[in-house]
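agent: user wants the structure for Minor extracellular protease vpr from Lachnellula arida. delegating to structure tool.
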Amino acid sequence: MLFFLCFSSLLSSSFASNAFQSTSTALDKAYIIQLAPETEFSGSLSRRDAHITTFHKRAASIEYDVRYEFKNPDVFLGVSIQATGNASDEELLPQLKAISGVESVSRVYSFGIPILPNISAPMDPMLSYSDPPQLKTAAGAGNLGSSLQMGGVDKLHARGIKGKGIKIGVVDTGVDYRHPALGGGFGPGHKIAGGASFITDDGNVANSTDPLTTCYGGGHGTHVAGILGMDSVPGGFDIVGVAPESTIYMYKALDCAGHSVGDTIISALSQAYEDKVDIVSMSIGAGTQSFSGAVDPLANITKKLTDAGIAVIVAMANDAAGTPYAPNLYSEQWPSTETTAIGVGAISNTEFPLVYSAEDSTGTTIQYASVYPLNVSDGVDVYLLDNGCDSNDWTTALSTIKDINNTIIAFGANLAGQGCKATSAGSWAESSITPVYIMAYNGPTTNPVNSSQEDPYLSAYDTPSQGFFGTTQFINVNSVYGVEFTSNYASSGGYGKYKLNFKSSNFTSAPQPSGGLMDYYSDFGPTWHDYTLKPQISAPGGHVLSTWPLGPLGGYAILSGTSMATPYISGCFALVKSQFPGATIEEVKNRLQVTAKPTPWVFDSSILAATPQQGAGLVNAYDAIFSTSVISPGQFTVTDISHTEYGTANITIENTSGSSKSYSLSHQGAGYMDYTLEYQEKNQRAIYGTAAFSQSSITIPAGQRSSIHVSVTPPSDIDPSKLPVFSGYINIVSDDKDLHIPYVGPPYSLFNTPYIKIQNSTSSAVFPRIWSYNQTVSTVDTGVLEFVAENGFGSSLPTLQWTREFRVDVLPANTTVQANNYGFDKDAEYEYRSSAFTPNSTVFGHESFGTLTVLLGYNWPSGNGIFRSDTIVTGSDGGKWAVGNGDYRWLVSALRWGGVSGVLGDYDTWLGPVVRFVSK
Ligand SMILES: *[C@@H]1O[C@H](CO)[C@@H](O)[C@H](O)[C@H]1NC(C)=O
Ligand SMILES: *[C@@H]1O[C@H](CO)[C@@H](O)[C@H](O)[C@H]1NC(C)=O
Ligand SMILES: *[C@@H]1O[C@H](CO)[C@@H](O)[C@H](O)[C@H]1NC(C)=O
Ligand SMILES: *[C@@H]1O[C@H](CO)[C@@H](O)[C@H](O)[C@H]1NC(C)=O
Ligand SMILES: *[C@@H]1O[C@H](CO)[C@@H](O)[C@H](O)[C@H]1NC(C)=O
Ligand SMILES: *[C@@H]1O[C@H](CO)[C@@H](O)[C@H](O)[C@H]1NC(C)=O
Ligand SMILES: *[C@@H]1O[C@H](CO)[C@@H](O)[C@H](O)[C@H]1NC(C)=O
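agent: tool returned. relaying tokens verbatim.
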């Protein structure tokens, strides 16, 4: 019995914020088409071509342009297209799916470099000084190697361990390989030994063998390549990359604005696979949308690369663009969320590498951050704006200033109450005069906002990328010097009276207040729903000096982000791999993780930063190689092992040294977090679990291994509906080294916790509930809700946890199904009015008329409101029909974590009161 359209809307009025909806948009009418790998085509390349040709023939009735062709069946066999005709997306998707040989059709989602204040889109992304290439340096006695020292990399370089023999593929904006520090050339025998380009500078499809990028907006890839492998060269700064003897393959897949789309990334990954790289380093993010394998082919491709022995190392992304601090748990971006990817968090460099001094007309020294010293004659004027983000202020300034070539225009950045970031300035486009020098002084802002605690972040120096303000030169003054500067400017009488002198051109480095701690923007894991620890590990990413496209602005830049930490970890991976060529990805990752150093929380050094913020902690590549204890796992999730066992793991310790070693095991808690704690509240707490060991000390003879059982008990009295996690480390201390295994997990059994929100209170709303628009909720008490369906009725059926299946089925009211929650008094009597129809399907082995909704996949905790004005259900055959008048009950079911679909006991269930449909 089939009926017409049914109106059913499932509103997600959830407490999960919209930040978790897609932040990625799809390219209009563009599709990635996966072709079935029929065996006869899997052999030669010409046969793969034939396979794609066959698709084009079969799709002849559709108008489209080909974007890319993917010919490696080991990675992805298929084609991506963009439709050009008038057909709509709704028409095209089924047409494409119906073509014989098409296995799946996916949309082409957008990707980008993780946005940070100092690397977001510059004023003119295409600005490029390709001719003649220029390189500049500066003299000084600063510590340019601090970031390498932080990770023990300098000690490996001293021993000649520099990543020789390892091939690292980088998916990024391309590279300026003319840079002498990057080898000055391209191709076999060069540092940048290979690669390809799949995108033009302005974002169109490309397919060339040359990944050269010279635009300043596309400098990201040049910076990343430098962190991996730059050399110290005459005429440049005396700094080197993490693995300077590795070979780099650059896959240009992002344009000068830092944008890309999914099929461009697939092209890059396929080529990296063909080139047999050891590592793929991706400083990219696609937003927080969940691309499960069923949605985007890239998820599967990440796994295929890992299965083939290629480590995929991905930035967690930076999510503090609009706020002074990364938002909260579960904010890491795809594809770092892939289980097989190694997600990387960012730690602040201990030193701001390049700081120069000026002296003002009152004789006070004002230090400023800049890649190069300001090359300006003595005694320049200073003009101070009220608000650097107000274009009127710039217009006034530029028409007032007499000698623009000898004037610095200054403004406050991050001043309390003003909200003007240094990089939001530059509102001088209206004026015909362009500033030559600008200076942002940082305000003494507290951070997070609304806090009286001293700011560990924003008082530090910061610089945008070279060329961010076009050819206008930018310098930055920290909040300490900012106070002196503004006060001296005012007491001297301001513009025309106050001057800055730039006599000294030697740099020093300045220690950073947050040095060695997690940086403010680094996104938090773990992965939602399954609580895999992300990031796996962290590395210096804040204020890193590295190479930049050549030009009059000098060929170096200081940038911050998980984008910078990612090549650092890729380089460390290469260093370890070069010493253990036979090691698997998991073995190298474990070495890096257990030898990393847990770091304190930036706002309270008595707490270790939560592992979903720092992962294993600060990498130490030296210890990863020279540790003579090999430990696994490198991380674990504390959660249900079975429906009755929670929080256990087995730790294997292998003593690879030449003599017997004693180990002692202990537990150390790290920050607790939950989804209701905002950054304003400084979102970590000293709430810890405990751990018990089968043996808390053990002696292992040379060359032997042993296994120890650990059982973690979570802190008690935590409300699971806040989606909390607790975290910590298992410390394994031997005579020579402290090793640590990070863990994270929900402080409760995911299987046994309530999934359906049950609330029966007189003071607030009752959940779950079903109501008619005409009746009051009081009918709940009678156990019979009498509805004229056409008048409309609604419901609120909130869930408390992630669930892979949420369903509402309509059962005869006299059903005998056993639920764990009931929305009525089971002993109350009522007169059963049977439906005129017979239930024609079953759910959990019980008679059912059909379903109101089934949500599969990863569902966020949600309000789950169903609103209807009919009695239509969907039968098990997919047909819709009206059940008409009679007595029914709704069975609401949410599949528990680790539960099996279709097994009643694996769901949290609620059987509702009688829903009695009557005629008007
Ligand atoms: C790039 O071009 C080559 C040669 O024409 C072709 O074989 C390959 O499939 C193309 N790659 C992509 C991703 O389109
Ligand atoms: C500046 O640095 C250069 C090179 O390191 C050194 O020779 C010179 O003495 C320094 N000048 C000052 C004023 O420190
Ligand atoms: C990814 O792999 C899974 C398991 O093999 C498969 O079910 C799914 O269809 C694949 N997704 C895509 C988009 O290819
Ligand atoms: C400022 O310097 C530039 C470049 O040297 C020069 O072209 C310009 O004429 C100068 N402007 C003034 C007002 O002196
Ligand atoms: C730990 O090892 C024991 C003994 O081999 C095994 O029974 C148990 O399942 C393991 N536990 C985990 C969490 O892997
Ligand atoms: C019940 O609601 C329907 C739809 O809003 C309306 O047409 C009808 O008049 C209402 N009946 C009563 C008794 O309020
Ligand atoms: C809800 O609570 C009220 C007051 O405690 C009680 O009378 C009523 O029976 C409860 N209803 C259900 C469905 O449990």
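agent: one observation worth passing along. Residues 641, 648-650, 709 surround 2-acetamido-2-deoxy-beta-D-glucopyranose (ligand 5) (CB under 6 Å).
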